[in-house]
Amino acid sequence: MTRQKLAGRILTPQGWISGSVEFGEQVICISEEQRPAPGCYILPGFVDLHVHGGAGSDVMQGAQAVATMARMHARHGTTAMLATTMTAHTADIEKALHGIARTIETPDASAARILGVHLEGPFISHLRLGAQPALVQEASIALVQRWHQIAPIRILTLASELGAHLSLIPQLSALGIRVQLGHSAGTYEDAAAAIEAGASGFTHLFNGMTGFQHREPGIAGAALAHATYAELIPDFQHVHTGAIRAALRAIPKLYGVTDATAAAGMPDGEYDLGSQRVMKCFGCVRLVDGSSLAGSALTMDQAFRNWVALGLDVADASDRLSRFPADYLRLTDQGRVEPGCRADIVVFNQDLQLQSVYLNGRCLEQAGPPKH
Fold first, then answer.
1. Residue pair 231/49 in contact by the 8 Å Cβ criterion
2. 23 Cβ partners below 8 Å, 6+ apart?
3. Is residue 274 packed enough to be buried (19+ CB in 10 Å), middle (13-18) or exposed (0-12)?
4. How many CA atoms lie within 13 A of 25 on its CB side?
5. Cβ–Cβ < 8 Å for 60, 92
6. Of 305, 167, 322, nearest to 236 (Cα)?
7. Angle, to 10 degrees, between the axis of helix 188-197 and the axis of helix 165-174?
8. What values do phi and psi take at 271, rounded to 5?
9. Are 199 and 171 in contact (CB under 8 A)?
10. Helices and strands of the chain, counted as H and E runs
């Protein structure tokens, strides 16, 4: 690949550099320059660890749907993601996993890289389903190993208070799977025990879990008290800005996810979310009966702007969508702009509008929202 160069304010793990970055498929060098840099921000591509769909397509529909949603999210700055499954019958989950595996095996140069699977169900509580269907089951190590062999499970959401789930956490961690607490009716004590056993994160913090009360801190309270990492949906619909501020003060590496559904990048209307139907209206996604929020229509470029609107500086907002989620998955070659890393780069202007996206050093022809 021919060397390319971008000039601007470059966010590196060591801080801002005003100058230029040279890259092929990987970043080659970063040069500091004395002359004023162009008025743009050069940032790491976004890493989204919780994505159900986009562009009208849902992960549970198979390989073509996964590829379609990965192309759409790439146009919004996501360069790597976890395809996220829903609670469903075993056969339907395995169909989705085979589709994800095929997409990983045949990568699309214009699509966000599929890093593996976030298995959000079915090992959750029927008391905290949210938008998940009531098809929960108890986990077993044999079942998880079987699914892990179909497609790599990088994150698994678990209600640790159920059955033998607590005892499975060390075994799941030994497989390289990050165990997250979520869709759980457990207590603070349940969560503390799970953390002691090796659970390392929380799925869409504050949503789908017992909330914080001063005498019953719940799962959310355990996150605030103990977590280093937790994911949160920064769309200002799922979580009040006051609660987001509290989490930012308490959790050092709180990071953003979209929890995007097939409705992301699409006009208002009805869409699939696994076996459920959801309605997008005025940017909000709910089950068609209106009973629950059902994922989001958020994209990572908007999540970035939302973090900044909340008061974070550009570097902190970027870290919470790139470096922190990459670190959580122990990815040392992604989520940062530095020599030797993949040339996954996003460029924003001073108004925080996305200008261009580079995947493995290749510039996407179209960035930003698709035209309808």
1. yes
2. 3, 4, 5, 6, 343, 345, 358, 361
3. buried
4. 2
5. yes
6. 305
7. 30
8. -145, 165
9. no
10. 10, 20
Pairing mode, strands 46-51 and 229-232: unpaired
Q: pTM for the whole thing?
A: 0.96
Q: State the residue for tokens 């549970």.
A: 60
Regarding beta strands 354-359 and 345-349, do their DSSP bridges make them parallel or antiparallel, or are they unpaired? antiparallel
Helix (H, G, I), strand (E, B) or coil at 40: strand
73-102: burial string, b at 16+ Cβ within 10 Å, e else: bbbbbbbbbbbbbbbbeeebbbbbbebbbb
pLDDT for residue 13 is more than 90? yes
- Cβ atoms within 10 Å, residue 200: 19
Alpha-carbon distance 5 to 321, whole Å? Answer: 24
The pairing of strands 201-202 and 178-181 is parallel
- Tell me which H or E stretch contains 116: strand 113-119
Q: Distance between alpha carbon 58 and the CA centroid of its chain, in Å?
A: 15
Q: Which residue has the tokens 């996604």?
A: 285
Looking at residue 2, its pLDDT comes to 85
Distance (Å, rounded) from C-alpha 352 to C-alpha 142?
47
pLDDT tens-digit series, residues 128-182:
999 999 999 999 999 999 999 999 999 999 999 999 999 999 999 999 999 999 9
Q: Which residues contact 289 (CB under 8 A, 6 or more apart)?
A: none
Annotated active-site positions, please? 259
CA dist 78 and 55 (Å) reads 14
Q: For residues 135 and 88, is the Cβ–Cβ distance under 8 A?
A: yes
Nearest residue to 232 via CA among 263, 201, 262: 201
Are 80 and 45 a contacting pair, CB within 8 Å? yes
- Token look-up 């699977």 returns 117
- The Cα–Cα gap between 147 and 127 comes to 25
Extract the tokens encoding 33.
């320059």
Q: Are 15 and 315 in contact (CB under 8 A)?
A: yes
